[in-house]
Amino acid sequence: VQLVESGGGLVHPGGSLRLSCAASGFTFSTYTMRWYRQAPGKERVPVARISSLGDTTYYVDSVKGRFAISRDKAKNTVYLQMNSLKPDDTAMYYCNAWWNNNDYWGQGTQVTVSS
After folding, report:
1. DSSP string of 34-76?
2. Average pLDDT over residues 94-114
3. What is the rounded distance in angstroms from the CA atom of residue 101 to the CA atom of residue 110?
4. Which of 16, 56, 97, 106 makes an SS bond possible with 31, Cβ 3.0 to 4.6 Å?
5. Is the Cβ–Cβ distance between 31 and 52 less than 8 Å?
6. What is the mean pLDDT of residues 41-54?
7. Residue 11 carries which DSSP code?
8. Contact status, residue 78 vs residue 60, Cβ threshold 8 Å
9. Alpha carbon distance 13, 78 (integer Å)
10. In this structure, what are the phi and psi dihedrals at residue 89, rounded to the nearest 5 degrees?
11. Residue 107, CB half-sphere, CA atoms under 13 Å: how many?
12. Distance of alpha carbon 44 from alpha carbon 17, whole angstroms
């Protein structure tokens, strides 16, 4: 089982990034997918969630209207489009797959928002 995140980097406030998480080794279409983030010295917290069918999404209040989660069944990939980025969005972003008590994590990708 692998979850490989990519797309992080350094961006100015107000900028955009798209994170990707490529999944392999499990039945991607069965799993609920989530993005979490962890800022230095803070706990890892959920940011966005998408259902296994891709028909339901959830966002933490702080990113509503700025972030969008999506998934591509053909590519076994989940995305996080991040717009209007703020310095408070600076964190390591992790991809998570969950189904039936199976819980998988990626290694994370760093997002830094700074002028």
Report:
1. EEEEE-TTS--EEEEEE-TTS--EEE-GGGTTTEEEEEETTTT
2. 96
3. 27
4. 97
5. yes
6. 97
7. E
8. no
9. 24
10. -80, -5
11. 6
12. 20
- State residue 100's pLDDT score: 93
What is the rounded distance in angstroms from the CA atom of residue 32 to the CA atom of residue 96?
8
CA distance to 3, 59, 100, 109, per residue, from 6 (Å): 10, 20, 26, 6
Q: What is the mean pLDDT of residues 26-51?
A: 97
Q: How confident is the model at residue 72 (pLDDT cuts 50, 70, 90)?
A: very high
CA 21/CA 77 separation, integer angstroms: 5
pLDDT of residue 15: 98
Query: Pairing relation of β-strands 9-11 and 109-113?
Result: parallel
Eight-state DSSP code of residue 14: T
Mean pLDDT of all residues in the chain? 97
112 CB-near residues (< 8 Å, 6+ apart): 8, 9, 10, 11, 90
Token representation of residue 32: 């609920």
